[in-house]
Automatic annotation (TrEMBL):
InterPro entries: Aminopeptidase_N-like_N, Aminopeptidase_N-like_N_sf, Peptidase_M1, Peptidase_M1_aminopeptidases, Peptidase_M1_dom, Peptidase_M4/M1_CTD_sf. Residues 223-419 form the Peptidase M1 membrane alanine aminopeptidase domain. This is Aminopeptidase N. It catalyses: Release of an N-terminal amino acid, Xaa-|-Yaa- from a peptide, amide or arylamide. Xaa is preferably Ala, but may be most amino acids including Pro (slow action). When a terminal hydrophobic residue is followed by a prolyl residue, the two may be released as an intact Xaa-Pro dipeptide. Keywords: Aminopeptidase, Hydrolase, Metal-binding, Metalloprotease, Protease, Zinc. Its EC number is 3.4.11.2.
Amino acid sequence: MTDTYFPRRGNEGYLVETYDLTLDYRVGPNRLAAVAVLTVWTTQALTSLVLDLADLRVDRVILQDGRRLRFEHQKEKLRIRLPGLVPAGHQLVLEIVYRGSPRPTSSRYGGLGWEQLDDGVLVASQPTGAPSWFPCDDRPDRKSAYRFTITTASQYQVVTNGRLAGVAHSGSTSTWSYVQDAPMATYLATVQIGPYQRHELPGAVPQRLVAPARRMTAAREALAHQDAMITLFTDLFGPYPFDDAYTVVVTDDRLEIPIEAQGMSLFGANHMDLEWANQRLIAHELAHQWFGNSLTLGSWRDIWLHEGFACYSEWLWSQASGYRDTDEQARTWHHRLKQQPEDLILANPGPANLFDDRVYKRGALTLHALRRSVGDEAFFNTLRTWTAEYRHGTVTTDGFLKTVATVTGRDLSTFFAEWLWDERLPQLP
């Protein structure tokens, strides 16, 4: 069933195995001409198939045998009429030709998805912005493989998820091809276009920096400790979960907040310095590669499984880097949360509180309290077991509690009832 937080997103009756997206984009006029080829498996008998797609014009939908299909596109839903009843377990390959001027979709969190920069594009879709630029089944529990073929003016670099398969230059344009084989949720699919340069960073895990030339020196200095962060997180959480690389994109624009996508993170020029306020963000977005991108929530009510874990990763880096130890961070934030309204249920905060800072900090406090209760060995064994068992998969709060019980051999139901389901903030152990 679709997510109760966003009932207008997501659909039933099928699974998308692969999204193959071919985009021709003109930066200046913001014009997109695109073809999306979706390989779909039906999970129930269907006479029509519904996709999420926002304010772009659909020209035609073609079945794999060449037949054109009838469709209706309204209220951000693309309803495709199939040629008769298609049984469950059947493969369909749909080609959707569309075009327009992509723009962010509206939400209570502001515009989401495809967004123009001063000179380029960024895509930040969490939680419901993917339909701003491609037709999809926009729900986090549906992961797929992706292929991207993106053509734009040659003065721009294109960065998206996965492995760069090639770049072909033709006159004034260049075509960039990427392959993302690791399963990925729609909201984590991204495109970054800008007048960038590329620089390889040293480290056991391949790392790439993509930034404007005038931002490159500051970005390299700001990311000087990133490899140490990867080493720490690999030791505590398990191997870096993606085979290709970890890419950091730095825009020439100022951004309010950084953004993670699968295999990469995006920062504004204003985030590139060695101050703790920004170093913690570098650690936070990196940690999302484990908690959020490899292990992705099945329902948005479980957002603490992303943000609480990434916030606690900040505190772990804080101690490892000699800034403040985790106990001090926990005490500080526990005191601050006690000064705020205690009206939030961590394991079901509601759509209005999805990105409330209390979710981040109380999630981190829950993990610290768990660590204090079971000890370091059992706690970090739990995290490594968690990331290994659900690598590239979908996770739930119940699943995490079961992993904790299995690894620790303890009944912690009262502990979790207080920390996850009680509005009142418990005392730290």
